[in-house]
Amino acid sequence: MNTATSHGFSELTTDRLALRAWTTADAAAVLDESVHPTDWAEDFPADGDRVIAGLFGENPDWLGTYGHRLIVERDSGLVVGSIGLFWPPAEGVIEIGYGVVASRRGRGYATEATRALAAFALTAPGVHTVVAGVELSNPASVRVLEKAGFEQYDTNAVEGGDGVVRFRLTNSPGHAQR
Fold this sequence. Notes:
This protein is of the alpha+beta class. It has four helices and nine strands, in the order E-E-E-H-H-E-E-E-H-E-H-E-E. Strand 1 and strand 2 form a beta hairpin.
C-alpha cells in the first residue's frame, strides 16, 4: 500500500485501486440522481453510497483524513464503490464499512480496499482496533473480512433476522494482525 497526498488528504493506493477521500462535490453528485459523472462505473452509486453521502452533513469528520473514501479502479479510473471509517474512534476502536458495485464484485476489490484502509486506520493516533459487523445472510462480506485478516469475535441475534457477526483487526498486544 502506498500513501500519496491529494488535496490535503492521503490517497491510499493498492496494486489495483486508489482510495480517495470523498469531497462535498462527490456527495452532492451521489445525492442528485440526475447526475452521473463519466468517471463512475455505470452502477455507481449503490444505495449504501447514497446513505453515507446523506450523512456527511451530520458527520463532518467522515470527510477527513481518517474518514470515508471512494474506491477507484486504477486501470479504468472509474469509481466502483466506497469504503469508510466511522470517525472518531471510541476508546481506540473504529468501525469500517464498505461496498463495491455489483458489476465489480468477485474481483477481490472489497478485500483489497478493506485491508488497505484498516492498515491505515491502525496508524491513527489512539486507534488499536478496527471492527466491522456483517449480517450472517451475507457470506460474501464475511469472506471479505476473513481474507482481509479480521477475526470473528462476537455473534448477536438481530430482531427478525438471523444475526450479525462482529469482526476485528487489532494491533494491540495479545492479538496477531494478519
